[in-house]
Each structure stands twice: as C-alpha cells, then as structure tokens.
Amino acid sequence: MSTGLSQKSAEIVRATLPAVAEAIDEVSGLFYRRMFAAHPELGTHLFNRGNQASGTQRQALAGSIAAYATALVTPQGRLPEGMLTRIAHKHASLGIAPQQYEIVHTHLFAALGEVLGDAATDEVVTAWDEVYWLMADTLREAERGLYAQAGVAAGEAGGTWRPWEVVERVEETDETATFRIRPADGRPAPRFRAGQYVSVRAELADGARQIRQYSLSGAPGDPVHAVTVKRELRPGAPAGEVSQHLLDHVRAGSRLEVSAPYGDLVLRTEDAHTPVLLASAGIGCTPLQAMLHQLVDEGHQGPVLSLHADRTPGDHALREERERLLAKLADAHAHTWYTDRDGRMDPAAVTLPAGLRAYLCGPLPFMRALRAQLLEGGVAADRIHYEVFGPDMWLAG
After folding, report:
1. Where are the beta strands (DSSP E) in 149-252?
2. What percent of the chain has pLDDT over 70?
3. Which one is catalytic: 68, 130, 132, 143?
C-alpha cells in the first residue's frame, strides 16, 4: 500500500504508535481545551457542546487518529476509507473551511508535546506531523469535492447555510415531531439521496449557535423536505439542546438555517430485484424511511425486509407511514420488536435472501450486534452499510 508516508517517518510512527495510542485520549482532551481557550467561538458556534461534555467527541478524534496511523504503518493495511468519508461528509455539513485544519494542527501538536514531554523529540513530532497532514489533506480534498457537488464554496462564509421555512409540523409521538420545510429564498430545494442528512443551525437562549445533523425522512424527489426530530432523554444526562429547542419553539412559519444534504449512507441497489434489509432502532428509522420512499417511487420488485426495534408502540416514530409504504411494495415484510434493551432484536428469526444489501441505523451497540449476526448469516461485509448519529465511535472502541 502506497501511503505517502516517508520510510523514516513510518519507522518512527510504528515504534511510537503504542505510546501515542495510549496517550491519545489525554492528548485530544487537552487539544480541545487549548483550542477553545484560543478560539471560544468554535466551542459555542461549531462544536457540539453535548458531545464535548460527554467526552464522545474526544474519544472519536482519538480513535480516528489511531486507526489512520495504524493503517499507515501496517503491512498490507487498508486505510479506513469509510471512516474518512463519514468525517468528510460531517465536516462539509458543518461548513468546515480548509484553513481550519491549521488551527487544529497548532493546538493538537501543542497538546501532543505537552503530554509526551521529553518523548516528543523533533524526529517524533516530524513523523506524526506527516501523519496529520496526510489525513488532513485527504479530508480537505474530499470536502472540496463535496462542496463542489453541493454548489457551495468551502467554509461557512461561502454559503453553507440557507434559510428554510417550516410549512408544517407533524406530531409523531409525545417526544418526536416531523418538520416539513422548504427554501425561503425562492430557489429550489436541492435533491438528496435517500439516507442523507442536513445540518440545522439554531441560536439558543444563551446566544450560542449550535449545529446538529438530522436525517431527511421524506421522499428524495419531494420539493418539500422533512426532518424528524426526537427529544433526547437519557438517564443522568441533559436533553439534547438543539432537538429540545426545535421541539419547544419551532412551529409552522418558523425559519431555520439548513445546510445542503450530505452523508454516505445512501441506498444503492444493483437493479429492481436486489434484496434490501432496512434495520433500525429508535429514531434511527429516519434515514431508512427515506429509503422506503425511494424504493416505492422506483417500483422496487425485490424483497424488502424492514426490521425495527423501539421501546413501545407509542415511542415508534413514523410507524403508520412505514406500514403504508411497505404495503405499496411488491415483496415487503415488516418485523418489529418492542423492548427497553437498547434496540435488541432477533434477526435469526428472519429468513435472509441471498445477495441482500443491509442498511443499519440506531444505537452503536445495536448496530455492532446486528452486523455481527448478519456476517454470521453469510452477508458480505461490503454489503452492510450503517449510519452513526453523533461522533463516529465505531473505531474508537
């Protein structure tokens, strides 16, 4: 594998990888503290304050760096392209500008030097600097392409945000609502691919402009888009502040700042007879709902298996619409589990057709367990696709 990493740097990174991997969580925590002290606006207007408070953003950063560096110095190793693609899409949805990688570099390497101390020799820092810029340049190039596809310039100043108007609010459950939105600037809504998401930027009571991603849950061809928002209620943790703001304050006629659609979890079928498995838990049903819309619109003829787990029927968002869409398909079957055990389901009771493509969305433990079961059932790894809401903790584990 040609990685672009010099032989000398590869040797140094390989030798120091265990020490850096052991320290990287501490390094990433110090990095964020240093960067927010120097650029407080990034903490209030760009980075997710909830993920910072919980530590998941720090852990995801540490995991991604460790995974990338490991791949660079492993013989016949494969770069974590899926991880890089997901990061690039998330960055584009936030309006990350190329020059912001310089800010990250400054504070990340200051933190690395402080944590490693005397072990951070000039040679070690130079080698890891190569790793950083290889990863950063890969992401910047990918993001440049995503911005070009969306017709926006790189970075927030280039037009990441458009004004949208809420034309309808639909109460799905006691804690979930769908907002149907259309552009308020007179220009047509951008087309999206089933499974993608948009970012919504909301100004909160303390003046912070926080950004969250929400999957588009309607039909890709609909000029009025739909985002379905659930109030985050986790024991011992505050409710998600942007979701709570939207559910408490946004009604028909409200204006929202919304990005172009992004996301790499998209429906891909070889033909109209490809078997499809859509498996979700909780609010993870939203990107898969858009996939159901697309399958119906395309007149899909192959088997479609819709698996969903939720706490109760009253918590199951978009349930009736799911049933209506499945009824329109030629060969569709629904399986539903209601349990309080973090999206637990038993796909062993479901007959899996050969050659299927599987799409998963829900809590990470749910997706890990289901992916393992699908692999054991003979589904090829490259035909299992997933979406992580929030920081990508798949590799961080």
Report:
1. 162-173, 176-183, 197-203, 209-215, 225-230
2. 93
3. 143
